[in-house]
Amino acid sequence: xxxxxxxxxxxxxxxxxxxxxxxxxxxxxxxxxxxxxxxxxxxxxxxxxxxxxxxxxxxxxxxxxxxxxxxxxxxxxxxxxxxxxxxxxxxxxxxxxxxxxxxxxxxxxxxxxxxxxxxxxxxxxxxxxxxxxxxxxxxxxxxxxxxxxxxxxxxxxxxxxxxxxxxxxxxxxxxxxxxxxxxxxxxxxxxxxxxxxxxxxxxxxxxxxxxxxxxxxxxxxxxxxxxxxxxxxxxxxxxxxxxxxxxxxxxxxxxxxxxxxxxxxxxxxxxxxxxxxxxxxxxxxxxxxxxxxxxxxxxxxxxxxxxxxxxxxxxxxxxxxxxxxxxxxxxxxxxxxxxxxxxxxxxxxxxxxxxxxxxxxxxxxxxxxxxxxxxxxxxxxxxxxxxxxxxxxxxxxxxxxxxxxxxxxxxxxxxxxxxxxxxxxxxxxxxxxxxxxxxxxxxxxxxxxxxxxxxxxxxxxxxxxxxxxxxxxxxxxxxxxxxxxxxxxxxxxxxxxxxxxxxxxxxxxxxxxxxxxxxxxxxxxxxxxxxxxxxxxxxxxxxxxxxxxxxxxxxxxxxxxxxxxxxxxxxxxxxxxxxxxxxxxxxxxxxxxxxxxxxxxxxxxxxxxxxxxxxxxxxxxxxxxxxxxx
Amino acid sequence: xxxxxxxxxxxxxxxxxxxxxxxxxxxxxxxxxxxxxxxxxxxxxxxxxxxxxxxxxxxxxxxxxxxxxxxxxxxxxxxxxxxxxxxxxxxxxxxxxxxxxxxxxxxxxxxxxxxxxxxxxxxxxxxxxxxxxxxxxxxxxxxxxxxxxxxxxxxxxxxxxxxxxxxxxxxxxxxxxxxxxxxxxxxxxxxxxxxxxxxxxxxxxxxxxxxxxxxxxxxxxxxxxxxxxxxxxxxxxxxxxxxxxxxxxxxxxxxxxxxxxxxxxxxxxxxxxxxxxxxxxxxxxxxxxxxxxxxxxxxxxxxxxxxxxxxxxxxxxxxxxxxxxxxxxxxxxxxxxxxxxxxxxxxxxxxxxxxxxxxxxxxxxxxxxxxxxxxxxxxxxxxxxxxxxxxxxxxxxxxxxxxxxxxxxxxxxxxxxxxxxxxxxxxxxxxxxxxxxxxxxxxxxxxxxxxxxxxxxxxxxxxxxxxxxxxxxxxxxxxxxxxxxxxxxxxxxxxxxxxxxxxxxxxxxxxxxxxxxxxxxxxxxxxxxxxxxxxxxxxxxxxxxxxxxxx
Lengths: 630, 551
Prior knowledge:
- Chain A: It comes from Thelephora ganbajun (Ganba fungus).
- Chain A: This is Gaa1-domain-containing protein.
- Chain B: It comes from Thelephora ganbajun.
- The complex is a heterodimer of chains A (630) and B (551).
- With 630 residues, chain A is an alpha/beta fold.
- Chain A contains 18 helices and 14 strands.
- Chain A folds into 2 domains: 31-56 and 408-439 and 449-625, no CATH class; 67-291 and 338-399, Aminopeptidase (3-Layer(aba) Sandwich), CATH 3.40.630.
- Helices cover 51% and strands 14% of the residues of chain A.
- In chain A, the strands form 3 sheets. Chain A has a 9-stranded mixed beta sheet with strand order 6-2-3-5-4-7-10-8-9, sandwiched between helices. A 3-stranded antiparallel beta sheet of chain A has the order 1-12-11. A two-stranded antiparallel ribbon of chain A has the order 13-14.
- In chain A, helix 1 packs across helix 10 and helix 12 crosses helix 18.
- Residues 1-14 of chain A have low confidence and may be disordered.
- Chain B has 551 residues and is of the alpha+beta class.
- Chain B has 9 helices and 26 strands.
- Chains A and B meet through helix 3 and strand 2 of A and strand 15 and strand 16 of B.
């Protein structure tokens, strides 16, 4: 039997070998011929997909995946007495504000309030050593031990002294702090908590929570001194940050983007959405972007130039609204900048988000917020396990809907595939040289068009060394990016010209291109393959960053290469340089924040730009400035 | 003849009439933070009886006739020849700093079981330990069977026998296990009632109202069996609870009565108890009022006799004079952090800090709140999946490294998938200062079958135990143990939802196919004609044909 099968297989193989090889060859030829069109097709599909991301058709309604959560399934007990208590805390906090109380006086007051509630409390002092001098601060926190439970798990409720308004521009979060204090008094009355409740009133904006969370998880950093915590509890599973800067609110906004683009499990956002709608009767916003049907809707920027008939079209308006939500998300996630203090907790596997009471003239206040937070905490309290189930990949184009990973991820990956194919084509091109075949030697010559492809060697070492050099060159670039603007621009100009000069020397490497591949082909091949790998790998870690990279690098890299025309070459190189260093110009003002994030929070955006993004474009600049040999 | 033999055997098996007596006691202590600590204790003593000698395990056991002693427990003890046994099932985290030392030292969160078992039987100590676990699991409806060899240790420096050990010429061994994830609830209380001679119908046990006890901030039950030379075998059943009268009071007062704490009153005393009393700790320098007047004062306790008191149909009540609402004593959080005015001599904080799933550090901070140095034993029993690196142990005190504070270390390394780590040492904590110990740990990568059903919850680590050694009291029977809170550790866990779906789907499919095939193979298909008897032969042929076909 076995022999028989082998015989049949052998016969099949011998019979099919000829046509199979031919078919394969034909296919290869076709791929080679149609490759430029395929590349353009992939790029068009990728960019079009990006533009389609805000479409309603790509998203679906939210649902609760974790059955244990049961959002909105409880009667809330928060009542006017608790609102009154919050009001009295608020008036005390306002008194502290008006008397210009130091952070030590504030934390003393807050921790005294916790003591009055019989909740064990402590204070943590911290210092950040910045270039402009040390920043001192003091966090007050309290841990309400869950009755009847071991306290191995915990839920965090926090409010920072500074609101996230204007990224911590100095607006005080007094009502947020008052809400947390009043919640502590209220939650203490119940024995149903299965997790310890940790209340943290952190000082400053990001600094306080960074010091507290680092000390809690035993992480140290050289430019920060944070006192060890006197009180600790178990593993923190979920965290709510309450931000209530205004007098009252009409909508609650959620901020969920974390440091380095980490996101909380979507279930907790969905639960909050359900609770806010059903228990509190408050519409939910993404960030603080209002709905087009809302009175607060500002004329959306992308459609202001459109004719008014088109601009007022429902679908266009809707598209603009969803696109704006996504763009706002991208500005946080791609930069890896946390959109609130919750963002510092994701790295410790804590599902956290900020509830932002969008300032308005009414109608909601402490009463609604308290009920919603109470119900959300009850939902977190129901958890028997950490939130899991792969609910970490999502885009939120609109409150109540989300885009699944399968619907958004391909957009960036398709563009990165186009880049990859260009790079591989370069690699093949580098390995073969077209040699005209003399008609005399070839017996069956049919004309002068006959060519022969000959192998040539591809010395990769030089290209790899050049690539490494450009990445190493990112290190001084990083240090330059920490300087103030005028010397920074000067140094940037110096670095750019040094790089352009260096490419003159690289051009000297090429010798006989019939035996050895020209350096630009190898360089281009490595550059493109590397860029494509970076985009594909980033796409699952931080989709927004991958999308930004794909959009910025897709076309420029796919069509990179030396040109013979001097004017085109110079224009091209200038464009590349602009693409590389526009982040550093004061008009964009991205790097200052990014450098601060890297130094104090560990956000990797600025080193990524300096040591990955800019060098990738620099490699393209070098390729463009080399002599076009084939 | 048979009757005579039976009578003779009975006389042999039950040589003397054992005398038994039963005592019950309730201690109520107002605590510093306004809560009320309560401890129920029910003691049955079987006089002049010694535990079963393991050598006699091969033969038949004496018959057991008890009047008050719980028979179900007695059977287990004799079946496995257990000399001393301690079982506790607790819920909550005992706050030593504000509640002080508990009346019953065993306050570890979750389950804790330890026993002293003598050698000398044909079955090994470990086999009998396993039998004991399973029998108690059945008796108390608790998952004590999970205290397998992966959790069992023998920390004899920390858990000394509380009674006496009979000298049978064979050594006694300690077996100890923690089960931190066990939750105590009503299903454990019902078997507890059943072991009491008066159940919950009369006496102090009336107050064991599950609605109130399981609402308490801390509650736990324990069973202690020990043998005291010259006294006999003692079974002590205890229930401890820390109740919060302020939480349930509208005006935030800490006045209490039995009715307000337990929702019940004692309406009848237990007729067979030889002593039955309620003792209330008298607070120092704070004006208070008892109603009714206590029947006596015993040291710092006001004593109310339950047997025969005329207040039986009323209540015990305690009120604080001139206190409109309870005010927590203010301490400066910047200097004191709630520690300097701790009730307890030692304050212990133990955390497992880690940023990732494969590494972390175990941090223990021990604060001495007294004016003189305290020596204490330190015990860690950590399951194998968290491995300690002893060489990374750092001890710091007042900012300097103090390796000399740790002494007398014994360490049993873990064996992956079977034996836990056992680490014991003696630590000296200088007066009024804090000793910080840190040790690096790695977290193991588990086999997928080793994950529990709630894999994403993490694993509970048992508490560490500290036993302060008082000067000149090194071999004392009664040791004050301090348990740290338990820890939760996150191990690298796969997302089980996908494999589980596949397993469920394929199992359903296999079950369906198996069911159909099994049905087809075992069922007989017979053509029967309802009318007329002449066709029966034909049916028989069909039947045999189908049977033959299957072969």
